[in-house]
Design goal:
By secondary structure, the chain is mostly loops. The protein is 3% helix and 3% strand. Strand 1 and strand 2 (24-28) form a beta hairpin.
Length: 443
């Protein structure tokens, strides 16, 4: 049953339940805080109604009615075998809303201006920080609480900006939630959660292990204390294989001692090139991609795959080793720089004009290519008689004019001479062997 509406509903301080056997049973309504409930002698019963005690007089009844009317709300609870709730009206009907002192009022003088101040009415009143009415909640994050206070650290609800909230346990060691609703962390000086110790700013520098899980002062007492894996007292050792270490931890890869099952152990240097010991305490091998030991390089599966500079034996390629890698353009091994191999001794490919005859070149005189009398043309081909280029052993070369009189150059790129029977150059005649033989006109 809903609460009576303040200022308008009519509710008695006692209601009557009609039971199945037809007998009326009185039920007294609990008064609001600050209102004294009627005493037994102030209660009365209507005819045929069972009650703990009847009202002794009309005055007592009126007093009872007046006190009930001052209660801002009531809570009705059925009892027994009640099947129907019936309010006894008449003299018990009381108006809850009249504060006046004028004739005709209902004598319900509650002196609150019909505005009962109470947390949960949806209005933020004096002494309240918030009031969302029915939305007040003690479980929902960031909600206005049912005591009309704002959500805050310590209310046992993790609100925005909080990491945790254990209520009154906040900041009480070993609770992991600190008084400011943040979760404890190793090194903050607060001992909480699974921590065994916490030295605050000096964490890891004193008697507390860096992870706050072991009190180092207890190691060596022969008892396995929290955070310890072993403790053999005087037998603890940092040099003997397979023994409990002096920090009361079991022997393990990375402790600098080669224990059973390990190939090596360089401690903090494990897996740090060029240490030959890998992070898992196995030795590096060429091709594992880790540079260690006497390896010059290691590209893993790419070793020996051109143009990778690392060869299959984990050595770096060099010009002349016959392996093409790195910045090499070619590598013919021992044949580098041996003409006509196109790969020069510096592992670069020859080109016309570099002075090295290689590949398809017929000649290469470098800067002299195409400069007469060099026999090598600009395209690294050899000059030939009739190409118009004077080179090699040629005396002349007028190209297509060779041997065509009056060109002084014969077809074989030699110069004409008087008596050779070829009229060329400044000759006026040339009868060969007949020159000067009368009656030949050519002297």
């Amino acid at each position: 049953m809903r609460q009576a509406a303040r200022g308008s509903a009519l509710l008695p301080s006692s209601l009557f339940l009609a039971t199945e056997d037809g007998v009326w049973e009185a039920m007294t309504i609990a008064a609001a805080p600050g209102v004294r409930d009627a005493s037994p002698d102030e209660r009365g019963a209507a005819p045929g109604v069972r009650s703990a005690a009847p009202w002794s007089s009309g005055a007592a009844l009126a007093a009872h009615q007046h006190r009930a009317a001052r209660a801002p709300s009531v809570c009705l609870r059925p009892s027994g075998r009640a099947v129907q709730l019936t309010a006894v009206l008449g003299a018990l009907l009381l108006g809850c809303g009249d504060d006046s002192h004028t004739p005709g009022n209902n004598n319900n003088l509650n002196d609150n201006g019909n505005q009962a101040q109470a947390c949960g009415n949806g209005a933020v009143e004096a002494g309240e920080e918030c009031d969302d009415g029915l939305d007040n909640n003690d479980l929902a994050p960031d909600a206005c609480r049912t005591n009309c206070r704002l959500a805050r650290c310590g209310d046992m609800v993790v609100d925005t900006g909080e990491e945790c909230d254990s209520g009154f346990q906040n900041g009480v060691s070993p609770n992991p939630c600190k008084s400011d609703c943040t979760v404890t962390t190793c090194g903050d000086g607060y001992l909480g959660g699974s921590e065994v110790c916490d030295d605050g700013e000096n964490q890891g520098q004193g008697d507390c292990r860096a992870d706050c899980l072991q009190d180092l002062t207890l190691c060596g007492n022969g008892v396995i204390d929290p955070g310890e894996a072993c403790d053999t007292a005087g037998q603890n050792s940092d040099t003997a294989p397979n023994t409990c270490r002096t920090n009361c931890q079991a022997p393990s890869c990375g402790d600098g001692v080669t224990d059973t099952g390990e190939d090596c152990d360089s401690g903090a240097e494990n897996g740090v090139s060029p240490s030959p010991c890998l992070a898992d305490c196995t030795l590096t091998v060429c091709g594992d991609g880790y540079l260690g030991g006497d390896e010059a390089c290691d590209s893993g599966a790419e070793n020996g795959v051109s143009p990778n500079t690392c060869k299959s034996d984990c050595t770096v390629t060099t010009c002349g080793d016959g392996y093409l890698g790195g910045g090499e353009a070619c590598d013919a091994g021992a044949q580098n720089g041996v003409s006509p191999n196109p790969c020069k001794s510096d592992c670069t490919v020859n080109s016309c004009g570099d002075g090295y005859v290689g590949g398809s070149e017929a000649c290469d005189t470098g800067a002299q290519n195409g400069a007469s009398p060099s026999p090598c043309l600009a395209d690294c081909t050899l000059t030939v008689c009739g190409d118009g280029y004077l080179g090699g052993g040629e005396a002349c070369d007028t190209g297509a004019q060779n041997g065509v009189s009056p060109s002084p150059c014969l077809a074989d790129c030699t110069l004409t001479v008087c008596g050779d029977g070829y009229l060329g150059g400044g000759e006026a005649c040339d009868a060969g062997a007949q020159n000067g033989v009368s009656p030949n006109p050519c002297k």
